[in-house]
Structures are given as C-alpha cells and as structure tokens.
Amino acid sequence: MTVTKADIVNVLAEATGLTKADVEVLISGFLYNIIESIQNGDRVEIRGFGSFQAKERDARLVKNPRTKRVVAIENRFVPVFRPAKFFKESVNKNLLANKEKQNNDN
C-alpha cells in the first residue's frame, strides 16, 4: 500500500482539528523548506526521524544495456535521506513481526 500526501493530510486534519486546506499548506511549506535548504547546501536533521542532504556523485561512463552505447554522465548532486537509528530499528522490528504473524496465519 502506498501512503500519499493526501492520506497524510486527512490523518493530520482529523488528529488536529485543522482544516484539510490548512494542513495541506503546512505540509507543503514543510517540504518546500527541506527542498530549499538542501538546494542551498544545508543539511536538514529531524531528530528521531532522519536527515536530508545533497551528496555529490562523480562523473562516470555508463552503458545503456539496450543499445550497448556508452554515455558520459557529468558529476552531479543528488538528495539523500538517512533514517535515524530509532526509525530504522522500529521499521525492522514491526515489519519482522508482521511477516512472522503472516507466516503463522498461513
């Protein structure tokens, strides 16, 4: 299942009592601020969740598997997310428990 931005807006609107429009503005502003900070070369850290930053990738030659043509890719920056330790551990723990439960139900 995929959780969309609209799903998050609905959940937060119900939980806070704010209108969906207000929550949409808050989420969009939050995401825009993260994007803008990374574009400026800053690192964004949200304690207990993770950090966002831009990472430089070196120039390299790549081969198109379909055409076998070799193409040069210039150096570039890509946004990366690194989850916090607690976040990684809780995801692993919950997904393992769900998998075990499904195996026991079958």
Description:
The chain is 50% helix and 25% strand. It has helices at residues 5-16, 20-39, 85-105, and strands at residues 44-46, 50-57, 60-63, 70-73, 76-83. A hairpin with a 6-residue loop joins strand 3 and strand 4. Helix 1 (5-16) packs across helix 2. It starts with a helix and ends with a helix. The model has no long low-confidence stretch (mean pLDDT 95).
Kindly identify the CATH topology.
HU Protein, Chain A
Secondary structure class reads alpha+beta
Return the CATH architecture: Irregular
**Overall 3D geometry?**
extended
Query: What's the number of helices?
Result: 3
Read across the widest sheet, the strand sequence of neighbours is 1-2-5
| Mean pLDDT value | 95
Distance between the termini: 21 Å
Largest sheet: 3 strands, antiparallel
Uncertain regions: pLDDT < 50 for 5+ in a row? none
SSE series: HHEEEEEH
Strand share of the residues?
Answer: 25-35%
Short account of what is shown:
The chain is α+β, with helices and mostly antiparallel strands and 106 residues long. It is built from 3 helices and 5 strands.
